[in-house]
Amino acid sequence: MPSDCELVQWDDLCGHQLPVGRPQTASVCELLGPGNSEEPSLLLGNGFVTLQTEGSLRITGNLRVRSARFEAESIFLQDAQVETQQSAPNTSAQGGGTFHSKGALTLERSNITVTGGGARWGGGLAAGGDVALVEASLLKVAGSVAEQDGGGLYTAGTLRLRGGSQIIVEATSAARGGGFFASGE
User: Fold this and answer.
1) What is the dihedral of CA 176, 183, 130, 52, to 10 degrees?
2) What is the mean pLDDT of residues 47-55?
3) Where on the tree of life does the source sit, at the highest rank (predicted)?
4) DSSP string covering 3-29
């Protein structure tokens, strides 16, 4: 197990998390799902779970997430199939209703669907650095809201799409940039 993640064990009967331990150093936290051809793993946050790391967060595999939030220095999704659904906006979140990267946010050969959620900026996703979608990645954001900038996606850096990658934004809203807002060059 990477040394910077808090490991939790889920009580399947009532959905409560049971802390197992938290190492004291930070580097990379990995969230691994089964292969993309298999049934996805399910992470149920019930509105109370934030996966937060002082280092990088790397997500691979097939995951389905309900009412959870991911926050890290940088977020890298590789060969990932991730579906997230928020039942209500996270009004306490400064940025990124579901994904918040203080630095770069990168999707490589990944399909990510973010439904619902909200924050001050980046209703679905927010990055303090660049956002890059490479090698036929797909990002779909629907039904998210930002109080300020980027109803679906906000980046303080640049937004880059390469190798046939796409962003689809539906039914999102914000004061500026209802779909997405990139403040970098």
Assistant:
1) -50
2) 62
3) Eukaryota
4) TTPPEEEE-TTT--EEEEE--S--SEE
